[in-house]
Amino acid sequence: MELRHLRYFVAVAEELHFGRAAQRLHIAQQPLSRQIRNLEDEIGVQLFYRTKRTVRLTEVGQVFLTEARKTLQQAEYTVLLAQRTSRGEIGRFAVGFTSPALNSILPKIVRLFKERHPQVELALEKLHTNEQVEALISGQLQVGLLHPPLENEFLVLETIHRERLVAVLSDTHPLAHAATESISIKALSDESFILFPRHVGPVLYDRIINLCQQAGFSPNIIQEVIPQQTILGLVSADIGISLLHASAQAVTPTGVVFRNLLEPSPELELAVAWYPNTTNPILSAFLGIVREVTIGSD
After folding, report:
1. Residues 251 and 277 in one domain
2. Do 290 and 205 reside in the same domain of the chain?
């Protein structure tokens, strides 16, 4: 039994006339009558009482009509669902992000995306860059907002944002009350540093070390912790100082101040990454919004 058999049956059941049903279906009456007979033979029940002048449904036919209509409606809905999914109007889309992305452009991207695609389930997951790379390749994520460079050459990468590093001090630190808003990295040579673990961002970590070494000292790193809120909390407790991306100021806890560095500091790049073999049709819409937001923020 095929869907067309159900359509034939419903047309005859609603018209109660094979001629009118055939016209409605744009087929000849004789083939229509034969298809209904075949349907009755296949399911083993009589659906219509037929005389030379009348056609009416049997009791079984009335029950069958109700369910046939449901089946056809479900089939139409299924086709519509597939079409809308292929156009990126509905479905699930998984996005990975880091703390700097959350503190900078991600909220704008999410708001705009949800306004334009309200029926898409946007799944957001905070992951380190190396974790996002693995999730993109496995298909767990469709897009990642992460920090280049990457060791994996199979991902497509597009830089969308850059931000400088700033010094993070407790509000009781002498440098927090200096006359100028900027300080030299050399002024931090005797400080205790609180950084993120190197495996979280090895390139940026090494750039921080190099920045200090170029200033004539190796940083005294007393703790390496994550997440960012923990670093800020320890700085607030005056346990040490840190160097973080400028967007960390968006979540500043009480007792912490930020100071720009006089020297050119390493930039933290934020990029959008995706696997080129991704077939999710929502990808192009999401990338379009990312580019729109980042162009507008320049």
Report:
1. no
2. no
Predicted confidence (pLDDT) per residue in 125-179, tens digit:
999 999 999 999 998 999 999 999 887 788 999 999 998 999 999 999 999 988 7
CATH of the domain at 29: 1.10.10.10
Indicate whether 145 and 21 sit together in one domain: no
Question: Are residues 206 and 113 part of one domain?
Answer: no
User: What b/e readout covers 267-285, taking b as 16+ CB neighbours within 10 angstroms?
Assistant: ebbbbbbbbeeeebbbbeb
Residues 6+ apart with CB under 8 A from 104: 161, 163, 247, 250, 270
Percent of the chain with pLDDT over 90: 68
**DSSP states of 115-154 as a string?**
HH-TTEEEEEEE--HHHHHHHHHHTS-SEEEE-S--S-SS
Sequence-distant (≥ 6) Cβ neighbours of residue 79 within 8 angstroms:
none
Provide the CATH number for the domain around residue 104: 3.40.190.10
- Across 50-54, 67-71, 263-267, the highest mean pLDDT is recorded for 67-71
- pTM assigned to the model: 0.68
| Cis amide prior to 149 (ω within 30 degrees) | yes
